[in-house]
């Protein structure tokens, strides 16, 4: 029997990159997976078909996690499709290099609305759908919350806020038997980071990060997904409030 048999998981922002890797890993471990997306429905549906071809269960649901009405509808779809919720992965997030001279109110609110307000709205709504036996919430943070890279003050601040939310809610929700942990990826190759020219293009920035990483490579979505699957399973039953740096040793 797979570790997550008969479990239902919701992964936000799962149409590509780390989110897609997490959705595939949870499905392979036996969970039925709700693949949430905000914009890229074509990618989300393709991922669902891939999971089904591998004998998994999945469905794609559109919702912008920064809007409470969307979040409410998302969970109604979860309930109508699978009837319950056991695992919530808050992966949806955005970033943009923003030197302080280029800071705008619009960019601040865009990142904080999705990276901070989004997880809060999703977690608040999820409490109506976890069963009496509880469940597990896994927030996808970022190594940027500790490394504080130049040009990413908004993003680093938003992910630091998510670290704090993880700590607070791990205590607040413990009485409901809901565990709350974070996985903070280091340098990770995905469609987004490659399109931004950060990794996968053999530039000086990537070479510098690899040199700073004890395991001597850039991470992959699968690296992060395996840590998330562990936190989603009963193997991590004694863990809550943890901020796991999944970074190959990069600090």
UniProtKB/TrEMBL annotation:
Domain Ketoreductase: 7-192
GN (gene name): fabG_1
Entries under PROSITE patterns matching the protein: ADH_SHORT
The keyword Oxidoreductase belongs to this UniProt entry's keyword annotation: yes
EC main group: oxidoreductase
Origin: domain of life: Bacteria
Enzyme Commission number(s): 1.1.1.100
Protein name (record): 3-oxoacyl-[acyl-carrier-protein] reductase FabG
Gene Ontology MF terms in the entry: 3-oxoacyl-[acyl-carrier-protein] reductase (NADPH) activity
Pfam families, per database record: adh_short_C2 (PF13561)
UniProt KW keywords: Oxidoreductase
Stretches assigned to coiled coil: none
Species of the source: Gimesia maris
Family that this chain belongs to: Belongs to the short-chain dehydrogenases/reductases (SDR) family.
């Amino acid at each position: 029997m797979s570790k997550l048999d008969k479990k239902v998981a919701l992964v936000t922002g799962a149409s590509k990159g780390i989110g897609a890797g997490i959705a595939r890993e949870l499905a392979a471990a036996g969970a039925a997976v709700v693949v949430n997306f905000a914009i890229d429905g074509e990618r989300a549906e393709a991922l669902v078909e891939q999971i089904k071809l591998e004998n998994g269960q999945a469905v794609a649901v559109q919702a912008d996690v920064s809007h409470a009405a969307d979040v409410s509808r998302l969970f109604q779809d979860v309930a109508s499709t699978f009837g319950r919720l056991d695992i919530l992965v808050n992966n949806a997030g955005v970033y943009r290099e923003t030197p302080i001279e280029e800071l705008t109110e619009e960019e601040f609110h865009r990142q904080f609305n999705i990276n901070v307000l989004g997880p809060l709205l999703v977690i608040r709504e999820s409490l109506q759908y976890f069963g009496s036996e509880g469940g597990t919430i896994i927030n996808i943070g970022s190594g940027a919350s500790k490394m504080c890279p130049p040009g990413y003050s908004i993003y680093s601040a938003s992910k630091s806020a998510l670290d704090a939310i993880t700590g607070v809610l791990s205590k607040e929700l413990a009485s409901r038997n809901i565990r709350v942990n974070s996985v903070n990826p280091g340098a990770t190759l995905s469609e987004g980071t490659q399109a931004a020219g950060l990794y996968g293009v053999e530039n000086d920035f990537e070479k510098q990060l690899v040199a700073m990483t004890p395991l001597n490579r850039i991470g992959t979505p699968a690296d992060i997904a395996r840590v998330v699957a562990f936190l989603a399973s009963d193997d991590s039953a004694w863990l809550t409030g943890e901020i796991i740096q999944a970074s190959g040793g990069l600090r």
